[in-house]
Write a structure and sequence with these properties.
Shape: flat
Largest sheet: none
Number of strands: 0
Distance between the termini: 83 Å
Radius of gyration: 23 Å
Number of helices: 6
Order of helices and strands: HHHHHH
Oligomer: single chain
Strand content: under 5%
Length: about 140
Amino acid sequence: MTKPKAKPTEHKGWRHWFHRNPALNLAYRIGVGVIGGIVLIAGIIMIPYPGPGWLVVFAGLAILATEFEWAGKVLKFAKRYYDRWVEWLKRQPSWVRGLVMAGVCAIVLATCYFLNVFALVGGWFGLDWAWLQSPIFGSR
């Protein structure tokens, strides 16, 4: 005797608890959306900086993809184009890779300047130079 097949709409495991109750299911989806969104936004902010920016973006999309079909599609799209970008960059001459690196460094330095990091660090060493002050967050 064969075992009856599960209906496609039936869920197995702990996730089934949430699907049975619409209020719990909605709360779970909202929680996944909020957590996945926070991770995704943090990853997007980290992209131009040294570290795991793209990894965090993919993690945020993966979290969202557990509940939202659109996020799975965006995740596949982002992975595909990230891989293409990396492969393209590997094929470029050193001067092109150097220009990309210089652009990334310029973004990091500009962010540090606008967030007043240079004035903060300069203050540690007794350097109170006006040009270190950020036009946005500087104290002058």
